[in-house]
Design a protein that fits this description.
By secondary structure, the chain is an all-alpha fold. The chain is built from 6 helices and 2 strands, in the order ααααββαα. It is elongated, with a radius of gyration of 25 Å.
Length: 156
Amino acid sequence: MDDKLFVYNALDGACTFEIRDAIWNDIKADGYGWTYGATIRLFEPLIFMMTRGIKINHEALAETKQDIQAASAAAQAELNKLAGRELNAQSPKQVQTYFYVEKGIDPYRGKEGQITADDKALARIARGTARRPGMRRLVSSKISVATRNCLAPTWR
C-alpha cells in the first residue's frame, strides 16, 4: 500500500485534534459543551446498531403502517370532499391549478419568480381564510395527506 495514504490519514486525524483544540473554548463558552458530549456519547451505540442492526417489531410496524394508510385515506377523502373533486396532494401542478385557477387566488411566487404551491405558499393561503371560508381546512388536509403519503411508502 502507498505511504501517501497513511500520511494523508495521519494528517487528517491530527488536523481533527488541532481543530478541536482551537475551537474547544468557543464551544464551551457558547454553551455547546453539553451538545458535543451528547454527540460523542452516541457514537458507541450508533456504531453498534450500524454493525449489528436493531431489532424491529414487525407486527407493530405493520400495525403502524396500516394506521397511517387509514389516516391517509381519510385525509384524502376529506381533501376530495373539500375540493369538490379528486385532488392529488402530491402533485404540485394539480394543487397550483386548484388554488390559483379554480379558486382564483393570486399565485404566490418562489425566489426565482416561478409560481409555487410549496408549504410557505400554502401557509399564506391558509392565513388569508377570512375571505375564503374552508380554505384552512383544505390546506391542512392537503398537508396531512402529503405527509402521510411520504411516510407510508418507506415501510415495505
